[in-house]
């Protein structure tokens, strides 16, 4: 799919007369609502007004890309607007003039289309990082002229990627009989948030994450959370990963389509998954891996 296939002339607003970023984004959301992309635009109004950083990709001096996954979206939809003058983003610190742009893109998608949504976001982020492309769009006088631009028509969304193309191979892991204190230290120092637990033959048997460690620490406290339960030093020293790890682990295959896995991780609210083949650990995949790959950073 080419980038221009995501746009329609009636979803390109030239000129975009709103003076604030939130108003401009709202105007484009309303345009998508008129096109039937989103059923209840009002559900997004408060979120747009908040101006959350995670909802916005800023190509400083070039463009803003506001992106939202919402249950009210019926399909993947894109709207674009060109303001007569640069619109400054309200920021708490720094020079506001460094975060201003005339070009604004709004991307909406339902949660079930998480994979395609990320591909579209990545494609727009990459192409609008090029000043020459932004300049050509700013020169356009109508939506029809924007859609005729070769610089957009030539850009294709990334082909269907497989998990194995993005996953971390030979990931850091631990064994079920590893002392818990040693595994916890490794988990904290590595900063990865979770360790797959494998047997000597590589078979995945569980996962140790910060969540399991927190549950374990809470279990050592009394009901009021202030007085530790009596526990001998020997007992603490002998506790192993097997005693704390979770055995209910969402796993994926290295040959699964990335779009499918991204949607699964979003719907299940999972940050990371082990990648297994014939029950053995072969890789590790995180949300950050997916975003970095598709946005091209």
Protein architecture, described:
With 297 residues, this protein is an alpha+beta fold. It has 2 domains: 3-157, Mannitol-specific EII, Chain A, CATH 3.40.930; 164-295, CBS-domain (Roll). It has 12 helices and 10 strands. It is elongated, with a radius of gyration of 24 Å.
Main features:
12 helices, elongated, 297 residues, alpha+beta, 5-stranded mixed beta sheet, CBS-domain, 3-stranded antiparallel beta sheet, Mannitol-specific EII, Chain A
Q: Poorly predicted ranges (pLDDT <50, ≥5 residues)?
A: none
Name the shape in a single word: elongated
Tell me about the largest β-sheet. 5 strands, mixed
Summed up, the helix count is 12
| Count of distinct strands | 10
Q: Which strand order do you get reading across the main beta sheet?
A: 1-4-5-3-2
Radius of gyration: 24 Å
Overall mean pLDDT: 86
**SS-based structural class?**
alpha+beta
Order of helices and strands: EHHEEEEHHHHEHEEHHHHEEH
User: Helicity, in percent?
Assistant: 25-40%
Give the percentage of residues in beta strands.
15-25%
First-to-last CA distance? 22 Å
| CATH third-level topology of the largest domain | Mannitol-specific EII, Chain A
CATH architecture type of the largest domain: 3-Layer(aba) Sandwich
What is the CATH top level name of the largest domain? Alpha Beta
